[in-house]
Automatic annotation (TrEMBL):
PANTHER family, per database record: ALIPHATIC SULFONATES TRANSPORT PERMEASE PROTEIN SSUC-RELATED (PTHR30151:SF38), ALKANE SULFONATE ABC TRANSPORTER-RELATED, MEMBRANE SUBUNIT (PTHR30151)
Signal peptide residues on this chain, from the entry's feature table: none
Ranges where the record places region Disordered: 1-21
Entry membrane topology: Multi-pass membrane protein
GO cellular component: plasma membrane
Protein name: ABC transporter permease
Keyword Cell inner membrane: no
Domain of life (superkingdom): Bacteria
Matches recorded under InterPro entries: MetI-like (IPR000515), MetI-like_sf (IPR035906)
Organism (species): Bradyrhizobium niftali
Annotated keywords: Cell membrane, Membrane, Transmembrane, Transmembrane helix, Transport
Spans through the membrane: 34-57, 95-118, 125-151, 157-176, 220-241, 253-274
């Protein structure tokens, strides 16, 4: 019995011998936040593949060129329009209407949106009118605007401005409401003037929503200018697309569609640059 106990003691680990610890495992840092990112060239590569497949289908005769012309035919139509000068005539007319209408609607929408977001009286009155008038298709008001403003550029610009105004006002007062109230109360506790609070706290906090609204209003302006030009205009991308469709010139019709798409891409790029410059603090 003593021999068995002594053998067990001999096998017991000594407390003086250091115990070998387990290998430490590195844990991935998970507190970096959500930073969405996209591939730099992924979208362009996908677009190039679609165009290549489209061109191949047209070249081998799988698609009737009357219904869907090949990309090469569309590029040729754009080139011919540019060389004849018709492209610049239509494009300049549309850009003028979009620019003036968008600026007027955006300026009025920002002013009304901030008033609704900051004033109780303006909120009670403004939200009621916006809720009642926003669902109305603005292009349906074009005949009435022609009666009020006459035949010319004014009704088309007013139609675009109305469509931009409501979307801008909604995005602005929604952005003002989204500003954390503890930041505003903290500024008020230091007796910061109201104008400074608006400029230093509310405006930066609402700016992401305002820029997101700009994306929407740019598309709204583009849709409205095409619709207005189809109804009553001699020059403009919308009038050109309608005329090409009536004459079954599908290559020129799609050329106008491609021009509208390029314009949308350019506007999106400009807004991305604005977000990078103005929202660098994010």
């Amino acid at each position: 019995m003593p021999s068995a106990r002594s053998s067990m003691l001999d096998r017991a680990p000594s407390t003086d011998t250091p115990v070998k610890s387990e290998a430490t495992r590195r844990v991935r840092f998970r507190g970096a936040g959500f930073v969405p990112a996209s591939s730099r060239f992924g979208g362009w590569i996908a677009l190039a593949l679609v165009i290549a497949l489209w061109q191949a289908a047209g070249s081998v005769g799988l698609v009737n060129p009357l219904f869907l012309p090949a990309p090469s035919a569309i590029v040729r139509a754009i080139y011919e329009l540019a060389m004849s000068g018709a492209l610049w005539q239509h494009l300049s007319a549309s850009l003028l209407r979009i620019g003036v209408g968008w600026l007027l609607g955006t300026a009025a929408g920002i002013a009304v949106g901030f008033a609704i977001g900051l004033s109780r009286l303006a909120r009670s009155v403004g939200i009621t009118f916006i809720s009642a008038l926003f669902p109305i298709p603005k292009i349906a008001l074009l005949p009435l605007l022609i009666l009020w403003l006459g035949i010319g550029e004014e009704p088309k610009i007013a139609t675009i401005a109305l469509g931009v105004f409501f979307s801008t006002a909604i995005s602005v007062y929604s952005g003002v409401d989204a500003v954390p109230r503890n930041l505003i109360r903290m500024a008020q506790s230091f007796n910061v003037p109201f104008a400074t609070i608006v400029r230093k706290v509310i405006w930066p906090g609402a700016l992401p929503a305002i820029l997101a609204g700009f994306r929407i209003t740019a598309s709204v302006a583009l849709l409205l200018v095409v619709s207005a030009e189809m109804i009553g205009a001699q020059y403009g991308i919308g009038a050109f697309v309608l005329q090409a469709g009536n004459l079954m010139q599908t290559d020129q019709l799609l050329a106008g569609v491609v021009i509208l798409s390029v314009f949308g891409l350019a506007v999106g790029k400009v807004i991305n640059l604005l977000e990078t410059r103005l929202l660098h603090w994010r």
